């Protein structure tokens, strides 16, 4: 586990930012929802000195914020206070806020944070990384997050709609890689890049994606995988905040529209040695034997960990043929129709692009599942088989499940997952997901009425 931030970091920030009045203290729960408290300026130093108490239930909530009674974090422990401490580098200004405000991300202390520590998704990733490092492998990662820019007001049918552009119109056509589409959201992009620079988030290339109002911005890879996911978490909050300032909603749902492209989170990963040399680097397009073992491990654990890549009912609406969302446990070289893609490029840049995650996935848990799969592949020297050439959709024999319950049960039954992530964490995570499944399936709404009200 990385060392928590020093008191000096907080004092320096206060000295350099005398105008800041409020601080958002947040922790990321298992659904990827930031939860926490709003503090006054004079409360900040105490957080760095002795942590901040947060209720044990904060890491065992549904996506709606409801307690999950059988998570083990409610009545059995009396909703006990657990101490969380600031993550180094997370104390940053939030330039889109009206009141001068900064944010600080916290994580549960390994001992003072019990029992909630076992449910902290950042700890799960840190343990997986430590396991790889113990064997001499240092993961390098980056995240690509797609999102929709939507109007804060729904259309006349009460449904979400693309945000208006600079000319006052709404994007209607798919203009993938369209430059005019980026120009039309320039005020938003200018503020977004400015905020990323201020927060030290390495935002790079922006592209117009496969649907009206859909955007993707890449984040630069980091030699510290935990830092890369910290930045992905804070970037997502930043995008939402800047969009709100511009009168828009940044939507990271996996499939917000039935007739338009879904939104993914592509994860880029390689392994380095202690000196920083890329262990996947090879003049061969399919990389080194170690890269192939890593692919083999990820393929062998795709079903077991699919719930961490696609955590919600809506996540599975994204998987459709010829949609650039993968449907099977496949891999290929410079091929976007497969789940695991080895991009082209010079040998030192050789890495794997994991294309399964929805943008609604928790970056910590998705990264943990990817890296744990890689570790298994290396330890067991797994062979991924021949890479797919051509249309991976047409060659997919055994398809991955596309329903929530099947993947929930796959994770529940996985002995590999219990070893990789810990039975205590899985107990909390699965309890939350079961509760969400029951609530979602028990809700009757517009689709039910439209399908069955007059026909059944």
From TrEMBL:
InterPro entries: Gln_synt_N_sf (IPR036651), Gln_synth/guanido_kin_cat_dom (IPR014746), Gln_synth_cat_dom (IPR008146), Gln_synth_gly_rich_site (IPR027303). Keywords: Ligase, Magnesium. One of its GO terms (biological process) is polyamine catabolic process. Residues 121-456 form the GS catalytic domain. It comes from the Bacteria. GO terms for molecular function: glutamine synthetase activity. It holds the Pfam family Gln-synt_C. Its cofactor is Mg(2+). Belongs to the glutamine synthetase family. This is Glutamine synthetase. It comes from Pseudomonas veronii.
């Amino acid at each position: 586990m990385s060392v928590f931030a020093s008191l000096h970091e907080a004092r320096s920030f206060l000295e350099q930012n005398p105008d800041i009045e409020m601080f958002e203290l947040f922790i990321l729960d298992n659904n990827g929802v930031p939860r926490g408290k709003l503090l006054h300026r004079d409360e900040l130093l105490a957080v760095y000195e002795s942590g901040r108490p947060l209720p044990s239930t904060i890491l065992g909530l549904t996506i709606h914020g409801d307690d999950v009674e059988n998570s083990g974090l409610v009545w059995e422990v009396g909703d006990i206070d657990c101490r969380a401490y600031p993550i180094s580098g997370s104390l940053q200004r939030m330039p889109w806020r009206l009141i001068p405000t900064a944010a600080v991300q916290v994580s549960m202390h390994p001992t003072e944070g019990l029992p909630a520590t076992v449910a902290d998704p950042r700890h799960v990733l840190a343990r997986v990384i430590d396991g790889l490092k113990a064997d001499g492998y240092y993961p390098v990662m980056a995240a690509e997050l797609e999102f929709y820019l939507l109007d804060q007001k729904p259309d006349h049918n009460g449904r979400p709609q693309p945000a208006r552009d600079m000319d006052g119109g709404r994007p209607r056509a798919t203009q993938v890689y369209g430059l005019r589409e980026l120009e039309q959201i320039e005020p938003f992009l200018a503020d977004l890049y400015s905020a990323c620079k201020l927060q030290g988030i390495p935002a790079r290339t922006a592209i117009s994606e496969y649907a009206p109002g859909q955007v993707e911005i890449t984040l630069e890879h980091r030699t510290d995988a935990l830092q890369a996911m910290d930045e992905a978490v804070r970037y997502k909050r930043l995008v939402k905040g800047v969009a709100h300032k511009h009168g828009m909603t940044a939507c990271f749902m996996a499939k917000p529209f039935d007739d338009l492209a879904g939104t993914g989170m592509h994860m880029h990963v390689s392994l380095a040695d202690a000196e920083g040399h890329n262990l996947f680097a090879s003049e061969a397009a399919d990389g080194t034997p170690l890269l192939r073992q890593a692919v083999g491990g990820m393929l062998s654990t795709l079903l077991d960990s699919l719930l961490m890549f696609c955590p919600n009912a809506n996540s599975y609406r994204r998987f459709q043929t010829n949609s650039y969302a993968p449907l099977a446990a496949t891999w290929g070289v410079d091929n976007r129709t497969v789940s695991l893609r080895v991009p082209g490029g010079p040998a030192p840049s050789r890495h794997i692009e994991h294309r399964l995650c929805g943008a609604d996935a928790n970056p910590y848990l998705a990264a943990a599942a990817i890296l744990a799969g890689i570790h298994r592949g290396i330890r067991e020297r797994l062979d991924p088989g021949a890479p797919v050439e051509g249309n991976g959709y047409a060659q997919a024999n055994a398809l991955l499940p596309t329903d929530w319950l099947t993947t929930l049960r796959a994770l529940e039954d996985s002995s590999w997952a219990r070893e990789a992530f810990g039975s205590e964490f899985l107990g909390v995570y699965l309890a939350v997901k079961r509760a969400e499944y029951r609530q979602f399936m028990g809700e009757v709404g517009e689709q039910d009425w439209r399908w069955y009200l007059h026909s059944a």
